[in-house]
Each structure stands twice: as structure tokens, then as C-alpha cells.
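Dear H.,

Thanks for agreeing to be a second pair of eyes. The structure we're designing against is below in C-alpha cell form, covering all 573 positions.
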């Protein structure tokens, strides 16, 4: 402000009026573009009740790993469309001493799973079989990931981290408008997938905002997890209910599949960005980390800051980078325990530089010129991400999913929890797009006990070897480009965390060959310029639901939840 006053000192009356107007703004107005500020710890998640559970754990002396576990289980109750105990979770963490790590709690194909399990006798894909119902379910991994993470990094007792979720399930909680609408719009799918009346289907009237929903059966399962750890889910009564449900619906997951499931510690992928920064993310079987890092490497060669936010040249160039990265994703990425993913090649700056040399600054490259594939629209963009930091500076970035909205829609009878439909994240047939329109081949073909490829991109950014940002998003294949844009918004467009999360987004994934653009993101002139370069633009309601945290230069944390796209909350203390 002082600088501005000096600069304008001898100039116009208008300028003085401007300075006066800015200075007289109420503090709240000046701060409105910042998210939640906190000194001691922060949890940003898709549901205020889950964020609150995490913050209470931090206040009780728990560390960020403890708060992550507690928030995860709370989300399995209050956010059943993606929070889960029968889905997957990827966690990337950075401890205050600089140690980094990640755990892979991805589902895997059942031991009876095989390459052609979703094809008819003529080799054609059977519609919706990998999406709805019991065969769509992968062997869940998220609970084991939480157990392992707590064993290695937690501080508080396990039971104290699960109890808040049990209380929420028993005491009930109020539905938001969005949640009520989402349950109502899924009613027919719930009825189709379940042969018994599940409590999420209301026959008397539609769900309304403010209705209280309870999860009494889920509370019992959570009690078993509280008391017996992983055995409370993968063995005993819960496993019995799970397998009984499978048998009823012609599913193929067995008791051995559940008992044998193991989350895996993996080394995160990382790359420097412009000297000061380092991007740390999830390795395969996520495609997200590698793709994000490839995009960041590509970005180094372009002046996005100078071109500006959502400028036509910026959008065109990001789109061209994305086109190439997603073509690599379709060809090279899969479960590293089954397929040799060329990680070193994909993260070699020389490879990415060469690959991006074909970008024409005035004309799009048709996706068919990169590699052929079929197209279909993106149908579902669920999953959920949350970010956690504690007062020591430990940071956890976690994305967890059932895949589609409420997963396979199957609720385990007597267990009250929903099952994932993650089998659709495999390439069910080479070249045939999944629900996200993504294609794949050999690398991501179905094999018994193999993990399906994911786009989940829980990420952490360092600046000058210190914690800078914790970030991630739901959105299927759109996760990667959402996380990419949020990071670029902060580093290149110098936005606050909240502004970066609020900002409009777009997405391109090679196939289908079009840009998904959030409504109202760009001026007509920008649209016309992009179209003149050959881009096809489809407008879409919303992309991603980011929950992120930024460490500010003064050591405070700024938490940002995606307030316009979700009911989330960043809460701290
Ligand atoms: N099911 C979404 C993902 O893992 O990418």
C-alpha cells in the first residue's frame, strides 16, 4: 500500500480515490480471497463434520497421520458417495524432517478375475457390468492402508481415531442439499443393485436438506475395526457379510481375497520445478503422479505467467501438454507389480522436452496424430481428497475412492457399507473407453490380483526444501489436470490457495479429443481464438473438488476447500 501511495503521490485525483477506496474496505472483504488461516494444524475435506473430527484429533495431541485416519473413517460415514471402507486410498506424506513416503491401498482384481470377465461370447463389452453390481467390485484396500499408516506414523491409540466415526454413524447427521439430491438421483441405481431395501432409498418421499441419516449397521462394522484393526474388516463377521453379499449377487470376491489383501508402501515420484520447487506425488498404480510431473516438466518451457491465467495461448499450450501426457498414460501405465512401467523414461526431462517439440503455437495437434483411440463422454467424476497438516509441519495428502458416485451402488446386507466399482478402472477391453472416456491397453488389462490403474493424485509441493502445498482432488481422469492447474495457479499466477481452488478449470485427456471447459471460464474472444486453432470446446458444470493447504511465508497455514463446487470445509486451530 505504501509503495502504491508513493507511486501515485503526484498523480490524479482518481488514483487517490482508488487508494482511499481500497484502504477503507472492511478487513473481511480484503481477506475474502484467503481461505481458512490456522497456526497449529488444519484439515481440508469434502465434509465439515469430517474436517472437524480431524481437527479435534490434532487438538488432542494427535499428529497429522492420526488426523488423517480419523478423517478418513469419518468420511466413510458422512460422505458415502466416495468416502469408504470398501474402496481404495492413496496417501502421500511429508514429515517435517523432510522424509517422504506413500502408501498404496488400491483395490485389486479378485483371484478369480481375468482379462475377459466383462466381455460377451463375441468379445464385446457387456454394458455396465464393470460399473454396477457385484462383479464391478475390486478387493478393497483402504482400511489396510489406514492400519499400516497408523502403525508406522500414528501417535494416538487406534481406537480413539475410529470412535468419532462410530459416533457419527450412531447419532446421525443432517444431509446437505447436495447430498439429498445425490441420494435421490441414485435411487433407481440403488434399487437395481440391491435385492433388499437399503436405508438410503426412501420410498415415502424424496430426501430433503436437513433430513437426518443414521448408519447403525456401519457403526457395528466400525466397532469391529476399532477393536480388531484390519481383522475387523478383512476377517470374521465383516468378511462373512461381505462374501455372503458376493454370493447373493454372483460376485467373485472370496474370503481368501479379503484375508490376503495387503497395502503396499511405495516410494513417491518427484521432480523439481523451476529451481525452487519440488513436486512429490503418488507413483504407479496411480497414473496421476507421473502425469502431473510430466505436465510440470513440460510447463517449465512456457511463460504462462506472462501469458496470463486462462489466456488462449495458456489454455492451448496446457491442452497440448495434456494431450501428449494422457496418450502416454493410456499406453505405458498400469500396476508396476504386473507390468514394467517405464517410470524413468516418462520422468526424464529430455524425453518430455522431445515429446513436446511437436507442439504448434497456433494449431492444435489432432489426437489421432498422436495415437488413435475411441471416444465417449465422461460420465462420472467422483472420489474424494483431503489434506492435513499438524503444528510440527507434518503433511498428509490423501485421495480415497469407490470410483463412481456411491461405487457399485451395492450395500453389503447387514454391514451397511457400499462397495466400490473400481474394476471399471481396468482397461476392460483394449481401446474401449471406461466411464471416464479413458482408453488403455496391455499395461492395464485385467489379471487376477492386479491393481487397476488410478488417476488419484495426492500431492505435496516443496519450496526451498520446505513444505509449501498439500493438494489433491476427485474427478477420475480429470483429477490430474485439476491438481496441475491449482499448482500452476499458485506458483505462476500468484493466487492465494483459496483463489487457486476457486478459479475456473478446463480439462483435456487426449481421447475424447475435446476440451472440457467449466461454464463461464472464458470470454467469447478466447473461445473463438481456441476454436480457430482447431480445438473443440464442451462446456461442463464443474471439474474436481479440491481440498488443499498452503504454507504461507509467515508459517501460517491457509486451507482451501472447494466452496463453490462442494460442501467441503477447511478447518483449523
Ligand atoms: N476411480 C478413480 C481413480 O482411481 O482414478
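And this is the sequence the design step returned. I haven't edited it by hand at all.
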Amino acid at each position: 500500500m505504501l509503495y502504491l501511495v508513493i507511486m501515485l503521490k503526484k498523480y490524479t485525483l482518481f488514483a487517490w480515490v482508488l487508494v482511499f477506496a481500497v484502504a477503507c474496505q472492511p478487513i473481511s472483504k480484503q481477506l475474502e480471497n484467503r481461505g481458512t488461516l490456522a497456526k497449529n494444524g488444519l484439515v481440508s475435506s469434502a465434509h465439515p463434520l469430517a474436517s472437524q473430527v480431524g481437527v479435534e484429533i490434532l487438538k488432542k495431541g494427535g499428529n497429522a497421520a492420526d488426523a488423517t485416519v480419523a478423517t478418513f473413517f469419518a468420511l466413510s460415514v458422512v460422505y458415502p458417495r466416495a468416502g469408504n471402507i470398501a474402496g481404495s486410498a492413496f496417501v502421500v506424506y511429508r514429515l517435517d524432517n523432510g522424509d517422504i513416503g506413500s502408501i498404496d491401498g488400491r483395490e485389486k482384481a479378485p483371484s478369480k478375475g481375468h482379462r475377459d470377465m466383462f466381455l460377451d461370447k463375441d468379445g464385446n463389452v457387456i454394458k455396465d457390468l464393470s460399473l454396477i453390481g457385484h462383479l464391478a467390485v475390486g478387493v478393497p484396500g483402504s482400511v489396510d492402508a489406514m492400519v499400516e499408516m497408523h502403525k508406522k506414523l500414528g501417535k494416538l491409540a487406534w481406537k480413539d481415531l475410529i470412535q468419532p466415526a462410530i459416533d457419527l454413524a450412531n447419532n446421525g447427521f443432517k444431509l446437505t442439499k447436495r447430498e439429498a439430491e445425490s441420494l435421490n438421483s441414485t435411487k433407481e441405481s440403488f434399487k437395481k443393485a440391491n435385492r433388499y431395501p437399503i436405508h438410503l432409498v426412501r420410498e415415502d418421499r424424496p430426501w430433503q436438506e436437513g433430513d437426518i441419516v443414521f448408519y447403525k449397521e456401519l457403526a457395528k462394522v466400525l466397532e469391529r475395526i476399532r477393536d480388531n484393526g484390519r481383522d475387523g474388516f478383512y476377517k470374521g463377521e465383516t468378511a462373512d457379510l461381505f462374501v455372503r453379499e458376493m454370493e447373493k449377487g454372483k460376485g467373485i470376491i472370496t474370503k481368501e481375497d479379503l484375508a490376503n489383501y495387503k497395502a503396499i508402501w511405495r516410494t513417491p515420484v518427484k521432480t523439481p520445478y523451476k529451481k525452487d520447487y519440488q513436486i512429490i506425488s503418488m507413483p504407479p498404480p496411480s497414473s496421476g503422479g507421473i502425469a502431473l510431473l510430466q505436465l510440470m516438466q513440460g510447463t517449465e518451457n512456457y511463460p504462462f505467467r506472462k501469458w496470463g491465467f486462462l489466456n488462449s495461448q495458456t489454455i492451448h499450450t496446457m491442452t497440448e501438454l495434456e494431450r501428449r501426457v494422457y496418450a502416454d498414460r493410456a499406453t505405458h501405465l498400469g500396476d508396476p507389480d504386473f507390468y514394467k512401467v517405464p517410470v524413468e523414461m516418462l520422468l526424464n526431462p529430455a524425453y518430455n522436452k522431445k515429446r513436446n517439440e511437436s507442439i504448434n503455437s497456433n494449431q492444435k495437434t489432432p489426437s489421432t496424430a498422436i495415437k488413435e483411440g475411441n471416444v465417449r463422454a465422461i460420465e462420472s467424476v467422483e472420489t474424494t481428497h483431503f489434506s492435513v497438516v499438524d503444528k510440527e509441519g507434518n503433511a498428509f495428502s490423501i485421495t480415497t475412492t469407490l470410483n463412481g458416485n456411491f461405487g457399485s451402488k451395492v450395500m453389503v446386507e447387514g454391514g451397511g457399507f457400499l462397495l466400490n466399482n473400481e474394476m471399471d478402472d481396468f482397461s476392460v477391453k483394449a481401446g474401449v473407453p471406461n466411464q471416464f472416456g479413458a482408453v488403455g491397453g496391455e499395461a492395464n488389462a485385467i489379471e487376477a490380483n492386479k491393481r487397476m490403474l488410478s488417476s488419484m493424485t495426492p500431492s505435496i509441493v516443496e519450496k526451498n526444501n520446505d513444505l509449501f502445498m498439500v493438494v489433491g482432488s476427485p474427478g477420475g481422469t480429470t483429477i490430474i489436470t485439476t491438481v496441475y492447474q491449482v499448482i500452476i495457479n499458485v506458483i505462476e499466477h500468484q493466487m492465494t490457495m483459496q483463489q487457486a481452488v476457486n478459479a475456473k478449470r478446463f480439462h483435456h485427456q487426449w481421447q475424447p479429443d475435446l476440451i472440457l471447459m467449466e461454464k463461464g471460464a472464458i470470454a467469447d474472444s478466447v473461445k473463438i481464438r481456441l476454436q480457430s486453432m482447431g480445438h473443440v470446446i464442451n462446456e461442463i458444470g464443474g471439474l474436481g473438488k479440491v481440498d488443499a493447504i498452503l504454507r504461507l511465508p509467515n508459517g501460517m497455514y491457509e486451507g482451501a476447500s472447494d466452496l463453490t463446487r462442494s460442501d467441503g470445509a477447511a478447518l483449523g486451530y
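Two observations from my side: The pocket of glycine is lined by residues 383, 401, 403, 422, 425, 454-456, 476 (CB under 6 Å). Residues 42-263+387-428 form one domain.

Warmly,
E.
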